[in-house]
Amino acid sequence: MSDFETIPVAQGDHMPSVGLGLWKIDNDATADMVVAAIEAGYRHLDAACDYGNEREAGRGIRIAIERGLCTREELWVTSKLWNTFHRRQHVRPAIERSLADLGLDYLDLYLIHFPIHLQYVAPEDRYPPGWIFDPSAEQPRMEIEAVPLAETWGAMEALHTAGLAKHIGVSNFCCALLRDLLSYASVRPSVLQVESHPYLVQEKLLRYCQQEQIAYTAFSPLGAGSYVPLGMAQSSDSILEHALVKQIAAQHGRSPAQVVLRWGVQRGTAVIPKTSRPERLKENIDLFHFTLSDAQMNQIAALDQHRRFNDPGVFCEQAFGTFYPIYE
Asked: Which of the following is catalytic: 51, 120, 216, 324?
């Protein structure tokens, strides 16, 4: 196996360093994309309750296994606990719903999606629950519930003990929250998943995770692309259009996307690029037959703008009527 194809996680396991992110893949395309990804060599799928396409992803997994493209044991499947399910009594039903939709007996990794605690919405009322408590209200908004992280994490540990999740972890957490969690966790988080790309390098956060032996997964590893249609970024924000990235790509005979993704895996992180274009699947995983020089790695890292596209401190107020910052 080539260098950087997997990264180590707890218990001596290894997570494939390139996965398919399922966020914003249309439901009617998800099953085919999952099958195509597995056929292209992907063994890491990143799902979530909130993406609303776990049932279709499960159909794709089932088709791929039935066709002999892989076995269940060869796959790494991640899902995430949504913000409305943070109370202890809601955590196990939440993973059971994701498992049922995905058609699986266990997850390889289950993450707390955000350190954001919202009022419970019963699945029979609305699923996925989304961000807004009552869409029919005169002023629809998020409704906050003060749930201690320790309560949610204790319920996550119970999922691990029960074998429903081989690994548990967190997403969108900062160093301070991680440090607090580590102070009382009986089962340490195996993985942190956060936005990370050359415009948001997060060097201190990555270093802290490496120090604590927490694997690090970069979502939105190509930067602005997924956020342009949402009005959260401009086309001009694309790292793929940067002259340096294009220059390094030309030097290696690779695409700008491959250079940016290679930078991600070469710095020791997993990356989960999203694509709805089957032809991009092979390009995004073909990262292990070239190497960036130390100088090129440093040049790309120096593009850091501390530019966060996925920031609840911005979009929660704009879209959901509630100011809810989680980053300083």
From this structure: 51
What is the rounded CA–CA span in Å between residue 263 and residue 285? 13
| Residue 51 is among the residues annotated as catalytic for this protein | yes
The per-residue pLDDT of the chain, averaged, comes to 96
Burial environment of residue 319 by CB neighbours within 10 A (0 to 12, 13 to 18, 19 or more): middle
* Domain segments of the chain as ranges: 6-320
CATH of 6-320, one of 3.40.190.10, 3.20.20.100, 1.10.10.10, 1.10.3860.10: 3.20.20.100
pLDDT tens, residue by residue, 223-267: 988 888 888 888 888 999 999 999 999 999 999 999 999 999 999
pTM: 0.97
